[in-house]
# Entry
Amino acid sequence: MTTDIRIDISRAKSTAVGKDHGITPGEFEALEPRVLAAHAILTEERKAQKYGFYDLYKDTASFTSVKAAADKFLQHGYENFVVLGIGGSALGITALQTALNAPYYNLLTKRGRKGHPRLFVMDNIDPITFRAMMRLCPPQKTFYNVISKSGETAETMTQLMIVVEALEKKAGKDAVKNHLAITTSPKGPKAPKSLLHPVAEAYGCTSFEIPLNVGGRFSVFSPVGMFPAAMLGLDLDAMAAGCAAMDAACSKASLHDNPAYLRAAVHHQMDVAKGKNMAVMMPYADGLRDIADWYRQIWAESLGKRYSLEGQEVFTGQTPVKALGATDQHSQVQLYREGPNDKIYTFLEVARFDKSLKIPATLTSIAELDYLRGKSMNKLMAAELRGTLDALKESQRPCIRITLPKLDAFSVAQVLYLLEVETAMAGRLYNVNTFDQPGVEAGKIIARRLMGGAG
Ligand code: PA5
# Structure
C-alpha cells in the first residue's frame, strides 16, 4: 500500500508569504545536497541497526506476542487497563487512544467499548490523581502495564510500588501475575540493569521487551504502544501497514519527494534562517489533539540540545507548541496572527470526518443565523480552518498542511511514522544527537538524590 497522507508546503514558500518568512527556490536548491548527505548517513546507520524505530513495524514476532498476551488477559474481563509510565512510555498510547477510539471512551458501557477495558494512562505522580484512579479502579477488576525502558524512573517505580501493595492486599501475591505486565529493556550483558526484571521474576509476570536501539519517544510501535493498543482492540495490522506505506515514502533519497525530509528541511531552515524558533502543531479534529502532545515531546527532547555531534556548544531546538482548532482560534490565533512572526505552523486535518452533523433549521426568528442553518458542523470546521490559514497567509506566517483521508489506524500510524523520520532528519540537519536526552537524565538524577537515593 502507498501513503495516502497529503502534505502541502505551498504556504511555507516565499511565493506565499514572502522571502523573509518563506523558503525561496534558491534555499530549496541549497538544502537538497545537505538533505541527501544526511540521508546517506541515516541510511547507513539504519542498516547498521543503530536506530531500531524504523523497523519496529516489521517485527511480526513482537506484534504476534502482544496480540496473544492481550487475547489471554482480555478473557479475564477486566474493567480497567492502567498504564504506569511517563514521557515516551505514555504519550504514544494516549495519542493512539484519542485518535482511534470513540470520544469519551471511558464513559461508554462495556458493550460500547466492544468488551475492552477503560484506559487510564498514569503519567504523573500527583497524589490526588493517583489516589482517585486507585479508588475508581479496584485492583481485582484492573490490569496494569508498567512501562519503563530504563526500569528505574522514580515516578514509574513509585506508581508500581503503590499498585503492587494494593494488588497483594486485594488479590493476593500469587494473583499479581494475572494483573500486571511489564515492559522494559531486555536482559543481557550490554543492557542497562532494569529494576523491573526482578519484579517480573518475583511475581512471574508477562514481560515485553523494548529493543535497546529504540528510545522512549520513538517506541510507540514497540510493545510500549502496541500491547496497550491490543488491550484496547486497536487494529495493529493496519498500523503496521501504515508504517510500511510511510516508510516507503520516507526512504526516498529526495528532498521534494520524501515528505519527512521536506518537512524537516523546511522546519530547520525556518529556524536557522527566518527566526521561526517555535513549531506549532494545530490539529483540526479532537481525535488528533494528542498527536500534537506526542509530537511536542519528540521534537523537544530530540532537538533541544546543548552540544553538537562534535561537542561544540550550539543550544539548538525549536520550541514545539500544541494547539487545537477551532478551540484555540479563540485563545492563540490572535498571537499567531499579530504577535511576533517567530513560528512555523502545521495544521493536521482529516479530509472526511467519519460522521456528519447537520445544523438544524431552528431559531428561525434570528435572521443572522441563516448562514448556518441547514449546513453541517463538518463544513463549519473546514471553513474555520480555511479562514485561519488564509488569515495567517495574509500576515505572512508560514504554514504546512497535513491531510489524513480519514481518522483510522492506517492513517494515524503513517503520521506518527512520518514525524519520527522527520525528527531523525532534523537532528542530522541541526547536527545533534537526536536520540539521547542528557537534560532529562540530569533532572532524574538530582531528584533521586533529593529523595536520599544514589545519584
Ligand atoms: O524519550 C525518552 O527517552 C524519555 O522521554 C523517556 O520515555 C522517559 O524519560 C521515561 O523513561 P523510562 O522509559 O526509562 O521510564
